[in-house]
Amino acid sequence: MSEPTCPFCGDGPEAIGTMYHIECVEKLMEQRAELQAENHELTLRLNDQRTTAAALRKVASEAEAALREANEHGDLMELRAEQAAFAECKRRRERDKAEMAKLTQRNDELRTTVIFREFEGEAVAFFPELPGSGRYDCMSYMHIGQHGAATHEFYEQTSATLEYDDLLDELENIGYVLAVRRRWTRAMDVRRYATCDV
């Protein structure tokens, strides 16, 4: 069994417990106090680092959540922008359609309504909105005889035809701007009556 020695100065057993070793004890206590203080400081620094790390994790988590929300908000804003653009495009399309309808109507108003029919192998052009000799008949045109009045009864004696290109060219060459229609309607009679004084 080894003999006890002073842990501070290393003296043998003859010196252990003497007044001389009180200084050793005091030195050891000072070293212990220094080590405890250093350990306490290290513990505080470690706790600070842990707190900082936790705070950084929280900030990172909040930043990630904010970024995700911003992305979602951005997607929503982009979707709303696309919806607004689509709505504006739809409104413009509706305006364009309305304007086109007005222009078409105006264009039709500037054109002369004509119906091409066939009578005994000859093409006949009826102008149901232009009065002939009066309000109850209309103007007509044929290669032979050219302009003349025609009644609705005569119109009913004719038949539909698609062979009217020559007559159409002849009418356009003498200045007509035509709107070709397929049949004689009551509305055409009304417009013709409106132009007649008789």
Structure notes:
This protein has helices at residues 20-110, 152-156, 165-173, 186-194; strands spanning 112-119, 122-131, 137-142, 146-151, 159-160, 178-181. It contains four helices and six strands; from the N terminus they run αββββαβαβα. It is rod-shaped, with a radius of gyration of 55 Å. Strands 1, 2, 3, 4, 5 and 6 form a six-stranded mixed beta sheet that branches. It has a domain at 112-194. Strand 3 (137-142) and strand 4 form a beta hairpin.
User: Regions with pLDDT < 50 over 5+ consecutive residues?
Assistant: none
Strand content: 15-25%
Structural class: alpha+beta
Please give the radius of gyration in angstroms: 55 Å
What distance lies between the first and last C-alpha atoms, to the nearest angstrom?
Answer: 152 Å
The proportion of residues forming helix, as a percent range, comes to: 55-70%
Report the major sheet.
6 strands, mixed
Number of strands: 6
User: Helical segment tally?
Assistant: 4
SSE layout:
Layout: H1 20-110, E1 112-119, E2 122-131, E3 137-142, E4 146-151, H2 152-156, E5 159-160, H3 165-173, E6 178-181, H4 186-194
Parallel strand pairs: 1-6
Antiparallel strand pairs: 1-2, 1-5, 2-3, 3-4
